[in-house]
Amino acid sequence: MSKLLTVSPSPHVHSSESTQKIMLRVVYAMIPAMIWGIYMFGLDAVRIGLLSVLSCLAVEFLIQKYIMKAKPSITDGSALITGVLLAFNVPASLPWWIIIIGAIAAMGVGKLSFGGLGSNVFNPALVGRVFLLISFPVQMTSWPVTRMMEVDAVSAATPLAIIKEGIKNGIPVSQLQRLPNLSDMAIGFNHGSMGEISALLLVLGGLYMLWKKVITWQTPVSIILTVLVVSGIFWVVNPEMYVNPVYHIFTGGLMLGAIFMATDMVTSPMTGKGQLIYGIGIGLITISIRMFGAYPEGISFAILIMNAFVPLINMYIKPKRFGGQ
Amino acid sequence: MLKTFKIGGVHPPENKLSKDKKIEVLPLPKTVFIPVAQHIGAPATPVVKKGDEVKVGQVIAQSSSFVSTNIHSSVSGKVTKVDFSADSSGYPKQGIFITVEGDEWMEGIDRSEDLVKEISVDGPEIVKKIQEAGIVGLGGATFPTHVKLVPPKGMKAEVLLINGVECEPYLTSDHRLMLEKADEIMVGIQLLMKAMGVDKAVIGIENNKPDAIKLLNEKCAAYNGVSVQALKVQYPQGGEKQLINAVTGKEVPSGALPIAVGAVVSNVGTAFAVYEAIQKNKPLFERVVTVTGKGVEKPSNFMVRVGTATSELIEAAGGLPENTGKIISGGPMMGRAIASLDVPVTKGTSGLLLMQKEESKREEIQACIRCSRCTSVCPMGLEPYLLMTLGEKQIFERAENERIMDCIECGSCSYTCPSSRPLLDYIRFGKGKVGAMIRSRKK
Amino acid sequence: MSITVVYTIATLAVIGAAAAVILYFVAQKFKVIEDPRIDDVDEALPGANCGGCGYAGCRAFAEACVKASALGDLNCPVGGNETMSNVASILGLEAVKKDPRVAYIRCNGTCDHRPKTSSFNGATTCAIASSVYSGESDCQFGCLGYGDCFDACDFDAIELRSDLGVPQIIDDKCVACGACVDACPKNLIELRKKMPKNRKVVVSCRNQDKGGVAKKACSVACIGCSKCFKECPFDAITMENNLAYIDSDKCKLCRKCVAVCPTGAIIEENFPPRKVKPEEKKETEPVN
What we know:
The structure holds three protein chains of three kinds.
Chain A: E1 5-7, H1 19-41, H2 43-67, H3 78-88, H4 96-111, H5 124-135, H6 137-140, H7 159-169, H8 182-187, H9 199-211, H10 218-237, H11 245-250, H12 254-261, H13 272-292, H14 299-316
Helix pairs in contact in A: 1-2, 1-3, 1-9, 2-3, 2-4, 3-4, 3-5, 4-5, 5-14, 9-12, 10-12, 10-13, 13-14
Chain B: E1 23-25, E2 31-35, E3 45-46, E4 53-54, E5 59-62, E6 71-72, E7 77-86, E8 92-100, H1 123-132, H2 145-149, E9 159-164, H3 173-180, H4 182-196, E10 201-206, H5 210-220, E11 226-231, H6 240-248, E12 263-267, H7 268-279, E13 286-292, E14 300-305, H8 310-316, E15 324-329, E16 336-338, E17 351-356, H9 357-360, H10 373-377, H11 384-392, H12 396-401, H13 412-416, H14 423-442
Parallel strand pairs in B: 1-14, 9-10, 9-12, 10-11, 13-17
Antiparallel strand pairs in B: 2-8, 3-5, 4-7, 5-6, 7-8, 13-14, 15-16, 15-17
Chain C: H1 2-29, H2 36-44, H3 58-67, H4 80-91, E1 101-105, E2 118-120, H5 126-132, H6 148-152, E3 158-159, E4 168-169, H7 179-183, E5 189-193, E6 200-203, H8 211-217, H9 227-231, E7 237-240, E8 243-246, H10 256-260, E9 266-269, H11 278-284
Antiparallel strand pairs in C: 1-5, 3-4, 6-9, 7-8
């Protein structure tokens, strides 16, 4: 026979799915929130977004090429996601050099030091964000002026920071000033990091990802429900001191964290049951930090802490086996 | 209500190109190579030698143990040699080469097309005849049928499940058989029920074959205790355990046989073969084979004598397309790629799939992104990503604890993996090693 | 203030002392009495933990040595005779001298000798490829070339050669631990006696097919013609299943078999180049 037949083990067909396609779908899901960020924060948001993406790609390429001596895999789209998520998680007014440091921490420490895509224990974008938050607390919590604010304002406080002040100083919720109303917060007329302000658009992205089967419902739903239930209990017991639980859902990075960060495939559990445990853990830690911790926001820490438990969860939570135990 | 199995599953493109093509009888080949191992279990022992004249239906290799079966000549002619040649396992296997001369059948075989409905033999007689006729599971697993019909001590069969699922993409041989030999299959089912001593049989058919569901449903009226269950299209529904789960809702326990939940599964092809063996006195030496593929000129279903070379079938389907990259014996999910066109059709060959060059290479392997798709599609509820790693790193004790032996090798994990990782390759490897480990422990 | 310091020191001291006493008694109670010679033997071993001795690691081997009454069956292939004589002197036993061995891959079916008849596309390990089919060529016995032996080797003694398609053993690095022997699904690798200057005369083929089939699959296949078997003056060659085999313990490296082999399946390595006529050469070459 003139031509050689190929021989392989079965199966001989493959679905049209690829890693790159999945990653791109995550990026598509982030577009609405990205546009909103740009609308609210203007050119600053474009600058920080581009810088973050480019430096993440560059760090991955350089480290893979010159330190790991491996074939660079920047086209798989994972570095692109990290770049966008990192930008989503910082104030739009952040100085340019800080975001580059963030990108180095995210990609270098958070991802490539573990061996690259698929091997990292912690969500790279969050590693970058927390690294920056601890190293540059002032810059990381100076929220920029949005187009909705009075002209003379120079900086803004996030709703969570206002609530935290209240808790610290024992001011009842009803007397807290400047707390935006719920519908404004849900839509995104709000202060905070570039990508976190519009809960509604983030949910939209989440629904798209659910539809495309990029994520499963367990993680985001269990996080949100846990936060809702726990903060609800506090609120019922003492509505004077604690805010309405719905505030907790729509403020800060909760939606961004629950939908885009905690659902990161690499660093979340493999089974539905495991994801529920993981989500409940994130919810509990988040609300504990928000209510009792030193930081106004706790979802980043919560996700990172629960990331560390993922191997353990995978070890003990097994899928339902056919034919029982 | 469409039923299906509860855990996992995928739905690859069906590509049933030959579903409207009537079964054609393939012209007799000039030579055949009939392997003596066409079933699971001990190979049969050749009882002919070079120079012997044989007739169609003559026993040419004798069953050598209980889990084994007779091999019959599919042609008449002269034995040229008893030698080794590659079969679809990829390794040279012993077999009998026969040069075809005429088409002289053994006496006693009823060659007419008339339907014989009356069942004149009793249960044990049926089992004995099935054993003599060399009937094996024709769905592809080729497990000797007579062994299945005799349940181990203390177990009792309650229901006979007939597998008309044909969940493999491309293949249509069972589909065509159901359409063209519906009555014969029904009688075959009655025979199997009698042999097992059960009064209930369910034919499971996937919903992508509405014509077969309709036809068999109509036939059911005339046959006691037989019903048709339409099933949602979902791979691997044709797997024994999945089919039982889909139809009865029961789960066969890990490591147990279907009889543990009172079920015995047989393929529609097997039911047809049983009919022919008992009502027509004709042993199993031919079967329906689908020849298909996107580049194939005439995708077809052929009635083929066992031992016919692959090349003859391809010729009859319009010749080997120029850009054929891979030839698969069986379906694309579980079939075996063959390296040469001399590989013969055996009792387990349900189809030949010719894949084009661009379809036949795997994509580049990328890193596992732990998306858990493999876990969610695994019909056995296993974690393929973990089993692959355990196989790759050769951690076999752990793999055993993670129930690697439950894997049915359906390939859903490899099919679905977005990083194109060879999950099943390594799981199969691990399974082999763990199996050897378990066997050595039992000694 | 100062009294606080005193209290602190005092409390810590008491806790420390109590812990020390508890630890002492626990240590006494759970003491494992181990033969100190195990440590000594372990020290004398190469510490590669390769398992070439048949034990789980150097430590397990050391324990086995200490327990044994004679070293006859115990051998560290990595350390060789020198290590074993050290071990023997530690234990006061007699060292048993063993011939050093070296692994050899008995297949010369390189790309130009053995034409490809199909191409494999799957996970690239020999174990998986061999479970799918007999291989990319028509020789079902030959090397698959995916390097399971290479992966198994802890000593960098195997070189993957994409130009040849068959891995090569680097004799000077090979310690004959046998890891590759177990890794090869085709059973091609054998531990052979190490000859002076790494000289070798080997039937570099495992093909058991009949001559014609073998020859068609690979130009340097052993066709089972028995010529070498008849030629060998030392009874080092045996014939089985259409295949010749040279026992390295009996071979004297005379190379008569090499000269008569019609396909070149028997190869010689590391000999000085032959002079013009191989027939005459045999007498002049010193027999080792």
